[in-house]
Fold these 2 entries.
Entry 1:
Amino acid sequence: MTDYYLIALKMPNHTPIDNTEKPRKRRMGAEERQEEIVQVAIDLAAKSGAESVTTQDMADAMGLTQGAIFRHFPTKDDIWLAAINWVRRRLMSVVEAAAARSENPLEALEGIFLAHISFIAKHPAIPRLVFSDYLLRRDSRLKQLIQEIITGYESRIAGLLGQAKAAGLARLDLDEGSAATLFIGMIQGLVLQSNIFSGRRSLLDEAKKVFPIYLNGIRSRNNNEEQI
Amino acid sequence: MTDYYLIALKMPNHTPIDNTEKPRKRRMGAEERQEEIVQVAIDLAAKSGAESVTTQDMADAMGLTQGAIFRHFPTKDDIWLAAINWVRRRLMSVVEAAAARSENPLEALEGIFLAHISFIAKHPAIPRLVFSDYLLRRDSRLKQLIQEIITGYESRIAGLLGQAKAAGLARLDLDEGSAATLFIGMIQGLVLQSNIFSGRRSLLDEAKKVFPIYLNGIRSRNNNEEQI
DNA sequence: TAGGATAGTGACCGATTACTATCTTATTGC
DNA sequence: GCAATAAGATAGTAATCGGTCACTATCCTA
């Protein structure tokens, strides 16, 4: 009796065997699909690095054919371009929200730093996309966009450092540009370490230990409020 | 008639047209050739990134055919492995020489930092090879080697920081591991900036401006010798 | 409900990849 | 000056890449 039921259960193939692939048959609007492609590209880049992501990989991940991708983007580089633009929008909003939330420039720096690290912890592909010199060489538009992001970020940090100096919170002999470089380097160093220990340590916890050292490096000596 | 000559001119292939490629006909010993392949691989990686260097590129650069490469290395990854090993040997000797040259731990840190930066300035491929997560994914041997280099470097720095603490040169509440992460991040930040401004600024000059900030971050407050 | 618009298919293209099998020739020891 | 050896040339391979093409399925709307 039980055998009979088992065989009957095997038959229905309107759920088409579903072997490892999603049976997503839905037909999406162009805009919606474009966004999905970008998200899938970013996700895949997080797992295996941008340079190893093929358009076939993207198509497989969303359950459609490779050719369909090129109905939504003229070129693979355009997908990366859209991805980087997405990152920029998100990162900027995260950063600016953190900056607005704080009362003095040093607090703003800390807020930005921790917000940035949290953002990266949630989306591990971001540093690999933005700091990847693979994408830097692919397309001149990509190169320019990435350059804009980094230089913009750097000058944003340098501006806050200038304000900190003016408010007597930072050393007067501080070179804002160099300190901004160190700020970005701090992020890169944490990402590198997290890559090597492949997530065994918490990125945010490590970040909280590193930042006081940086803060101590830029802070003026007469302003000795205890660090966190 | 002229056609005849043209055909006749096409025949002699002992001087094979020599278009843009060196007519290097020399036949080298295996060991010598292996070293040349490694050097060429590193040079090409400096120009266009490791992930875009093909074995054909290497062969072209040294004036022989692509197949010849595989007479000296069983696999392309073995070339990268040899390249990374070469980098490790050179970097270690540069760093240790700088460390031996100095009298206290903080001086040693500065010496190592500047020596490292100078080394990188001379060989721009190094950070791209060692910090590249492209190579990290290619081969497990590569991954392990790179991990060894970075963790070894990091613990070397952390050790010096520990000595500095013991000698009263660094803050007692300093987390050596985090400070070592920041040290490496500092290097990465400078490399990134140098990439973006594509060599328009001197890497070493920028380094000399960034290091005092780091030093100030780790130094104890009662030890207030003026910085450079 | 007919028909235009368009998302998606599936086969295919040329180029390029790492790698290999077979032949040729330069070097070297005798 | 003559083999033997090993470096290099030549001409392949199979796989994979981004991208194209003619076509079909589905949706929206007049």
Entry 2:
Amino acid sequence: MPKLVDHQERRETIARALWRVVDQHGWTRATMREVAREAGVSLGHLQHYFTSRTGLLTFAMELAAEQTGDRVTRGLAALDQPPHPRDVLRLVLAEMLPLRPEARASSRMSAAYVLEALHDPALRKQAGLGLRDGRAMVERLIRQAITQGQIAPDRDPDIETDLIVALTGFTPLLELEVIEPHAALAAIDQHLDRLFAEAS
Amino acid sequence: MPKLVDHQERRETIARALWRVVDQHGWTRATMREVAREAGVSLGHLQHYFTSRTGLLTFAMELAAEQTGDRVTRGLAALDQPPHPRDVLRLVLAEMLPLRPEARASSRMSAAYVLEALHDPALRKQAGLGLRDGRAMVERLIRQAITQGQIAPDRDPDIETDLIVALTGFTPLLELEVIEPHAALAAIDQHLDRLFAEAS
DNA sequence: ATGGTTACCATACGCCTGTATTATGTCATG
DNA sequence: CATGACATAATACAGGCGTATGGTAACCAT
């Protein structure tokens, strides 16, 4: 047996270097050489852990999704137990938007990933599944809130779900500084307040 | 004087070829050679009308924005005169989302453009201005509707504007077929109905 | 201690990129 | 009709890209 290294850890280190490159210089400059430079390793080293560029990108993307999930999970712990679904939705949206630096990197990653996925069947499938899962989670929350009387029963769960998920449309507005983070949060709060207004 | 050609027309033809490439194969494959091939001209020909790639991209982007504006203008003509602001907003949103093939190309163009703009000061300024203009137009509509009693006066115009603009967040959901066009339109209608519910 | 497996690195290959250069055709005018 | 401006084209160049290859160093089991 040779020298022992934690493969998963090495791959995560490299993936994080990729995030930084994407965050600072954009998806197009996320080349093997640039990522290796950012990670402080040689091109050969990087190749040892990621044979292909596509493999690196998908791995980094999955890791970013996990990371976002972890941020949400951590945020949930800070809420009342059990948390009000309104607060859960607010937290999820807040973590998906580029409001803080860490979230910004993930946000830029997934934006570029989606764009690339449109023309690559394999990526498309994965990206589609991810989005579908996210939407399904929101829908579950909303249906449950309706059942529990926190949302008025005359609200259509599908439509309300879509409206919530669509609020990720704040991303370009935030990125190009058309609106400030507090404005995005205010709008989200307003929307959620109305959704949960008429009951509980 | 030499042979006479309409420069603007030639540039538009090439820009449209760029749209097709971006629409079908993605921003990354929108190279000078690929666009020339799609346009059915030589690389030299393309270079004669666009010295640099950046120039081509910005021109094509501006043209796409104009085109979207024209679609909205044409749609306005089909509405009641004067049109109800609710219908205007619905039309604008519908034309910005990738619901029909022509709109899809423009949508993909601007998505890629915004992503590229994040890391290029010049593009960033232009993209920011475009988005700001769009938001300002929506805000004007909403403030006017409040003044005219079509929207309840206790609604905050800034927040309502942001919520409307954020509905462009349906784009990735539509692109990855997480939701169907009719669902996006239903959600938009629901949101607008509520916004315009309490008056007029 | 030695063999074999793994980590790591430098370099090379073929391809594609944006752009520059140069040549040729094509026309309206002096 | 010749001349000069423009349209179009072909080719060249330097650089960056993903990936493949070969070699060296480090380590553990035997």
